[in-house]
Amino acid sequence: MSNAIEYAMLLDDAAVNATEVPQFDPEGRLSLDTAYAIQAASIQRRIERGQRRVGVKMGFTSRAKMAQMGLSDVIWGRLTADMQIEEGTAIDFSRFVHPRVEPEIAFILKRSLEGDVTGPQALAAVEAIAPALEIIDSRYRDFKFSLPEVIADNASSSGFVIGAWCDPHIDFSNLGLTLNIDGRVVQVGSTAALLGHPLRSLVAAARVSAQAGEPLQAGWIVMAGGATPAEWIRPGQHVSVDMEHLGSASFEIKK
Ligand code: OOG
Ligand code: MG
Predict the structure, then answer these.
(1) Mean pLDDT for all residues in the chain
(2) Residue 18: domain span
(3) Which residue from 187, 201, 213, 250 has the fewest beta carbons nearer than 10 Å?
(4) For ligand 1, is residue 163 a contact (CB within 6 Å)?
(5) What is the pLDDT of residues 186-225, one digit of tens each?
(6) In this structure, which residues have their CB less than 5 angstroms from ion ligand 2?
(7) The CATH number of the domain where 135 resides is what?
(8) Would you say the C-alpha torsion 26, 201, 129, 170 has a positive or negative sign?
């Protein structure tokens, strides 16, 4: 386990300094429990620096993402307040190693949600839903990793952008969406890509969070996962997601 602390420090330093690290378990020999323990220890360092936990991100909840990264298990990571980028603002590229962006849908909870819940129970805990963008930025060289490695690296999470919150009492099971870079549509998809219905991603988030002893809290955000493959982003670009009925979310990267 002392190794776990060392890996946690390595990954946390890489995230803070926007540097890349070599893979330490390319064959994926570490157990998933160990991988999540590394993740927990690296996020604990952030919390000790004064960061605040604000929610959970789900990963590989769509076939498109699984296929792009060559992995097939749903994974999750921890969101902290410093990862949130205010919608419509411009950010520095220097905070990233080799960032990619993907279109997601976000939930914000009005009540805690714990353990094995049904879709309707999960929905009853949702305050609002919003179109969102996730910036993923693997700390591993060339964005290459095994399943335990990406879990240890907080599921590549780096930033997230959330559009205007909307009433969740619409049918959001199959909303069309586009990912746009500099006004060009670069990916087309649907919220149905997320396990057939994005609520299933929230149900999974409730289960894995409770299993980790950190049940979903009122006020927390849950990012449901990329609905399309991710796209590389570069300085000077304007990135947005447009989602049917829910509107859009965007950010820019400074030149
Ligand atoms: C891992 C993170 C996956 C998603 O939405 O599926 C993820 C990665 O692709 O680097 O965030
Ligand atoms: Mg994602």
Answers:
(1) 97
(2) 4-254
(3) 213
(4) no
(5) 999 999 999 999 999 999 999 999 999 999 999 999 999 9
(6) 134, 226
(7) 3.90.850.10
(8) positive
